[in-house]
Amino acid sequence: MVRWRAGGLALALGLAACDVAPPPADTGGAPQEHGLVVVGSDYQSSNVSLLSVTGDTLSGSFISSASTSVGLSAPLSGDVATPSTPTSGEELVLIDRYPAGVLTWVERATGQVRAQLSVATGFAANPRDYVQLSPTLGYVTRFEPNPRAGSAPLDAGSDLLALDPSQPALLRRVALDDAMLDAPAFAPHPDKLLLVRGALVVLLSANAADYRSSAPSRLVVVELREERLAQVLVLQGLHGCSSVVLAPSQDELAVACSGEFGGDSEPDAAGSALVQLELEGEGASLRLRERRRRAASVFGEAPLAFGLAYAGEERLLVSTFGRFAQGSSPMIDDTVLEVSRWGDEQRLLLRSTREPFSLRALRCPQPAPTCAVADASRGVLHWFHRGEQGLEPLGARRVESAVGLPPTVIGEY
After folding, report:
1. What contacts 361, CB < 8 A, 6 or more positions away?
2. Which of 34, 276, 339, 364 could bond to 346 as cystine, CB 3.0-4.6 Å?
3. d(CA 51, CA 130)
4. Cβ neighbours for 391, distance < 8 A, ≥ 6 positions apart
């Protein structure tokens, strides 16, 4: 799998940075206890906005790469993400991925930065996800291995780091090497991270050092008391798995796999599928079992992309990659599909407008009756109402217009 880095991603996806005017002053926080966090980015700089779950903009520029008066000691880069798990309490967490490797805690009501913490430990760690279990314990996934580990504490990479967000401070490292006993030539690359029934579930890619080949992706259950690997479930035949979401009833996980990238920006659809996994037990006894697998070919001629969400108990939202025209191969648009969780029904909801790789994040905040899709090409969020008969379009809205960066990430608090 290619490494989705700030400069490389812009090139690979054809999203060239555009000249924008200097952003206006930050617009402060939002008092609402439930809403969306939207990151706009041109892969050079980022702007974070706060929205209601129905699409109203509460703070157009909550914090940005140009923020100077909110307490940032490390300015935000162009590769900022939000945790998969909705943040709770009075703070939001931002994940500045590659090359910064910094977590930032921001007061939601004021937009003031409480703290920042580097998780790089001397190398470009590329943190991918974060979950907070208590005021003094959180975990972050570090995607990259460190080929020159040993010169600083906790610097091996390809791992989980336990940290104390109240300080903030790094505590200890949870190694994931035992997840690769069947494929020792490949390193674990932990990506998404969920707290499920009292255990951590980590989605791993498994890549060679040059990223030109990979072993099958896998899910790891980490028991929290001793921070040990309680289960490793290899998704045989599937590569480039980068999205995992929990059903509203918490009885199932869904995983989207894009296929093997082979050092390129276009994955091989042969290793791409949507997988549903049944959950059994809890805590140290939590086990995952594959329930259903649908190959990418079921959804069209392109591999699955990174967008995945449960639109309620009966339906899922999935996205597929487009493709630029190459030789005799025509261009293919990105798509977003509504698919049945239990049956074979599917419905096209959205298509990109001749700009592949522009339909990005999906989010269906629970229990709000809405779903949102980030469209970087049009510079809008597309909104849908979750009705009894499926998703109904509500139209598209710009998140904000003063800064004007295209929306790429949707988080929740």
Report:
1. 306, 307, 373, 374, 407, 408, 409, 410
2. 339
3. 21
4. 311, 315, 317, 338, 349, 371, 384, 385
User: Is cis: bond before 367, omega within 30 of 0?
Assistant: yes
Give the three-state DSSP class for 375: strand
With tokens 């997988």, the residue in question is 275
Contacts of 351 (CB under 8 A, 6+ apart): 333, 334, 335, 336
Which tokens is 352 given? Answer: 């990109």
Contact present, 241 and 203 (Cβ < 8 Å): yes
Q: Is residue 1 part of a domain?
A: no
Q: Measuring CA to CA, which residue among 219, 211, 159 is closest to residue 189?
A: 159
Q: Considering the domain boundaries, does residue 405 fall inside one?
A: yes
Report whether the peptide linkage leading into residue 184 is cis, meaning its omega lies within 30 degrees of zero: no
Distance CA(309)–CA(327), nearest Å, equals: 34
- In angstroms, rounded to a whole number, what is the distance separating the alpha carbons of residues 122 and 184? 25
Return the pLDDT at 327: 85
Domain-located, residue 111: yes
Residue 175 burial class via C-beta count within 10 angstroms: exposed 0-12, middle 13-18, buried 19 and up = middle
Please tell me the chain's helix, strand, coil percentages from 3-state DSSP, rounded to the nearest 5.
5, 50, 45
Q: How confident is the model at residue 198 (pLDDT cuts 50, 70, 90)?
A: very high
136 belongs to a structural domain? yes
Domain count, the chain: 1
Under DSSP, the state recorded for 23 is P
Strands (E), 281-354: 287-295, 304-310, 315-320, 335-340, 346-351
- Token code pair at residue 12: 């690979």
Lowest mean pLDDT among 3-17, 172-186, 378-392: 3-17
List the CATH number of the domain containing 407.
2.130.10.10
Backbone angles phi, psi at 9, to 5 degrees: -65, -40
The single-letter code of the amino acid at 237 is G
**pTM here?**
0.92
Residue 412 makes CB contacts below 8 A (sequence gap 6+) with 34, 35, 36, 37, 82, 86, 87, 363, 365
Tokens linked to 247: 């059903």
189 closest CA partner among 229, 224, 171, 216: 216
Residue type, 162: A
